[in-house]
Please model this.
Amino acid sequence: MRILTIEDDAATAAAFRDVLADGGHEVRVASDGRKALAELAGWRPDVIVLDLLLPSLSGHTLLRYLRELPEYRQIPVVVVSGALPTLQRLEGANAVLRKPFELHKLLDLVERLRPQVRRN
Model:
């Protein structure tokens, strides 16, 4: 699967990239919301891993934007954040992981989303 990870902390982004790539996935990383939009303009991921606290364009705003546009609406989004008070479902997200978490949980969750992935 093709996975876009949107995470502003370089060490965390590298850890996400490494565990997902080791799981056999093609991974690209964007460090903020605006860079994610630029990446999406030329490449369509099967799953998006999205941090909520991002510079230049928040994860909340980016998630709303992704759900409003038909070309992105069907892409499953996994929200990862330490800013969530609870693990309740975030509107527009397919799944939520509260930081910190064990990296294998991200890989397991992405694998469970595989049936939701549709190629256009």
Residues 10-22 form the longest helix (13 residues). Residues 4 and 24 are 14 Å apart (CA to CA).
